[in-house]
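Data availability (excerpt). The following record was deposited with the supplementary files.
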Amino acid sequence: MPAPAPANPDINNILNPPDLTLGQLVLHADPVVQIALALLVILSIWSWAIMADKFIEITRARRAIRRLEGEVRDGTAPEKIAADDKHPCADVVRAGMKEWKAPPDTQESLHEERDRVERSMRNELAYEVRRMEKRLPFLATVGSAAPFIGLFGTVWGIMNSFTAIAQSHDTSLAVVAPGIAQALIGTAFGLAAAIPAVMAYNKFATEIGRYVGRMQTLISTVGGQLVKQARTGRA
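Predicted structure:
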């Protein structure tokens, strides 16, 4: 005698969804799984927005450092670089110029003056790096948390599916597969949100590290140029 059809409509949705397309699986998933999926979609959209913003910002920073390296290589005076308000790296050079032109509190050697000027430029660079790193920790958080959110949805969905299968008294593959498929969507969504976030975070962190290294070299070069000018008098 065939087993009676489950009376609970939620169980019927799990055991017999209209079809196994992604949209229908999400639509007929357990509400807790749907909440987890919605959260993952929100985190993913937010992550991609941050990635787009940081990609543009870091691309501009790379162009700026190449331009500054070219100007320093060509012997452009630091005063000219600092006076260019449109130069992306002008704030760092301008901070050094301001400190260089400020009279010291006590008599100092050229080495001490160079240290003071370069320290001022490094402080400005640190401020710029903090601005560039803003919202990057969110990508790291999504990369580490999203798989667990998806796993939670999967575990919850599998528990719910097994409960429905037990109530239906039918363990055939046609009955088991739809519920398991609905549950595994959570893991897929979690990985889809986490993988791009982790890759973008590592890429941006590496690019920022390279930018800082190149700027540190230029700061040392500009500091040396200013000290040489100090021997003949300040502009």
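Summary of structural features: The chain has a mean pLDDT of 80.
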